[in-house]
Amino acid sequence: MGSLLFSYYCFSTQIAFILFLFCLDKGALGAKFTIINKCDYTVWPGILANAGSSALDTTGFHLPSGGSRSFQAPPNWSGRFWGRTGCNFDPNTQQGTCTTGDCGSNKLECNGAGADPPVTLAEFTIGSGSQSQDYYDVSLVDGYNLPMMVDAGGGSGECGSTGCIADLNRQCPNELRVSNRVACKSACEAFQRAEYCCSGTYASPATCKPSVYSTMFKSACPKSYSYAYDDLTSTFTCTGADYTITFCPSTTR
Question: Is the keyword Translocase assigned to this protein (predicted)?
Fold first, then answer.
């Protein structure tokens, strides 16, 4: 009986050690991002690494309806993802522009350039290892151009899903609307006023409060950033996870 208990103890210890090594190795690898396009139209994702982070395998690509593509990001990576729409790229030179989310590079690859607002953004800061938290959010601070969802998988901690599944282009007020309802501006971009941009004397959580416009965004997409200091309900954490970014996710979630 004693030998059986000892064998069971050894087996359990080995399994626990293997799982520990798996988690440790997984965290040391950073995070895998998978981008899925569930829109009924083509999306051209853009990727921008923040200063101090290396570029991923690509900074912009073509993703047809129903398509997906994955990338590995190293530990300590931070950056953002977005979807460009209405693009027209020359198949030979890869040069062209997009109606929304254009990064100004005049090419399929964004090459270190960010998105031209209005655009829906998924933002990430990946931890340094298996015990370090990742931080992520979906932001409407720069406006909105398409629905987006972020799901964390295989990690530990809260690891909540976040995003905006509502069609804000249909709900967009006239004063924020981009022609043909292809995107919805933020109040900051539309009016260039400090109280909307959280700048100048409004550059603090105490002085910059939600506007009627950011409140509308928040009501439609309660987990997304609606203005610059919308941190408490909009920033999510997870440890050792991989992430799925979905354009046009199901509206039944």
Answer: no
